[in-house]
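Input structure tokens:
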């Protein structure tokens, strides 16, 4: 089988920054093992697989090691593929996914995504978290998907160097670190998910589904300028609207071709 494949940098306006994602356009989904093999071969944080269903699309995401229920940057990349390459006249697309319908529309800064919020609760630091981070967080929050460690400063977020073996042993698949920004943004963050084959994800839409509700309660507002301070780095505007999170960001095409499997 041959299928179109695109690689884009998401949550950025400049190539070689933001979060790279691959998007494979299919007539129907092949066996899960085939999609997992393609994602492993691509060796990006996420590969999205896209199938058209009438006027909408079905979307699945794979890391190099596993399928995930939600991915922001590869959804953003998929929307760019639909609205810039497959159907340039479109200004809105709905993706049906394991996390329900995800709507993406054109926006002034690129594309506006609407995702489910991921609320969390404060908990004592779980065993091994401080050792994994090499420091004691100010606060720790948890939901079904991730731990979130609140650190004392933006500098602490930027310089923390987690022990990935210890992070992998936590009883959640991902770890967010965050702090208020000392610059032009409201908050900064980083995201580590070695259990999913992603030691550090450059810019993570799904993490902001947890970050936005937290910072809404701390900052007493609902719209934020956020920056994920990975080595590649990338930013977005995000808004908490009831039980949904809107994320606005841009994409840049890097490569277009065909995959054979």
């Amino acid at each position: 089988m041959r299928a179109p494949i695109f690689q884009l940098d998401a949550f950025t306006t400049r190539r070689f920054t933001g979060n790279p994602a691959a998007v494979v356009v299919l007539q129907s989904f092949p066996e899960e093992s085939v999609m997992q093999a393609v994602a492993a071969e691509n060796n990006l944080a996420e590969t999205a697989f896209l199938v058209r269903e009438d006027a909408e699309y079905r979307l699945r995401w794979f890391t190099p090691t596993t399928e995930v229920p939600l991915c922001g940057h590869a959804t953003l990349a998929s929307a760019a593929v639909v609205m810039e390459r497959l159907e340039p006249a479109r200004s809105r697309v709905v993706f049906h996914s394991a996390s329900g319908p995800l709507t993406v529309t054109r926006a002034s800064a690129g594309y506006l995504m609407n995702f489910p919020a991921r609320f969390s609760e404060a908990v004592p630091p779980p065993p091994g978290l401080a050792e994994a981070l090499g420091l004691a967080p100010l606060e720790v929050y948890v939901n079904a998907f991730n731990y979130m460690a609140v650190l004392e400063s933006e500098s602490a977020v930027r310089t923390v160097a987690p022990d990935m073996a210890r992070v992998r042993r936590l009883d959640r698949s991902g770890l967010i670190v965050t702090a208020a920004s000392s610059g032009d943004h409201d908050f900064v963050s980083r995201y580590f998910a070695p259990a999913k084959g992603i030691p550090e994800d450059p810019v993570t839409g799904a993490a902001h589904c947890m970050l936005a509700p937290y910072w809404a309660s701390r900052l007493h507002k609902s719209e934020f300028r956020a920056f994920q301070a990975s080595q590649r780095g990338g930013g977005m505007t995000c808004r908490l609207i009831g039980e949904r999170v809107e994320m606005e960001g841009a994409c840049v095409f890097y490569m277009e071709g065909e995959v054979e499997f």
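Residues 72-86 form the longest helix (15 residues). Helices lie at 32-42, 72-86, 129-133, 154-159, 164-168, 205-219.
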